[in-house]
Amino acid sequence: MHNKSGFSMLELMIVIGIISILSAIITPNLIGWYHHQGLRSAVVELQSDLQLAKMSAVKQNNNCSLIIDTGAGSYNIDCTGKTVSLGTYPGGVVFDSPDGSVTAGVLTFTSRGICTPFGSIHLTNQDNSAYYRTQVFISGGVTTSKWNGAIWE
């Protein structure tokens, strides 16, 4: 009697079918997660760059501005020369708001860390699946909140 080792064609086809079904279920979720992570990374870097602009203004004892170009989808910090393009993030991150709020054009920190004028910067991804607002207060404080569909949380 012969001992046959290995898998039958039917067993291989069943395994390939199961893998195909799982891939079809998981792939859309992974793409959505990937786009959201790109947006979240952009928000975290924006918040860090606002703090960098504030600290640079205080350190240099001079004004430092974060200049936003919504058309080009980028911003730069004039006193450090740093420029960030939102197009480098996965998911197509752009300046946009769900409630019609306008993104500030220039936020300037004084040598005392005060922001004039104060305002908000709104970011979303190409799917408009999530919105984030980064607010800068006159005191120089920076906070980030997420749109839940009705209010900012």
Account of the 3D structure:
By secondary structure, the protein is of the alpha+beta class. It has a single domain, classed as 3-Layer(bab) Sandwich (minor pseudopilin epsh fold), CATH 3.55.40.10. Helix content is 34%, strand content 25%. The strands form 2 sheets. The protein has a 5-stranded antiparallel beta sheet with strand order 3-2-1-5-6, covered by helices on one side. A 4-stranded antiparallel beta sheet has the order 4-7-8-9, with helices on one face. The longest helix is centred in the N-terminal third of the chain and has 52 residues, at 9-60. It starts with 8 loop residues before the first helix and ends in a 7-residue tail after the last strand. The mean pLDDT is 90.
In short:
With 153 residues, the chain is α+β, with helices and mostly antiparallel strands. The protein contains one helix and nine strands, in the order H-E-E-E-E-E-E-E-E-E. It has a single domain, classed as minor pseudopilin epsh fold.
The CATH superfamily is minor pseudopilin epsh domain
Tell me how many strands there are. Answer: 9
Arithmetic mean pLDDT: 90
Distance between the amino and carboxyl termini = 72 Å
**Runs with pLDDT <50, length 5+?**
none
Strand arrangement, major sheet: 3-2-1-5-6
Q: From the alpha carbons, calculate the radius of gyration and give it in angstroms.
A: 23 Å
Broad structural category:
alpha+beta
Domain module tally? 1
What is the number of helices? Answer: 1
Task: Give the SSE string.
Answer: HEEEEEEEEE
Shape: elongated
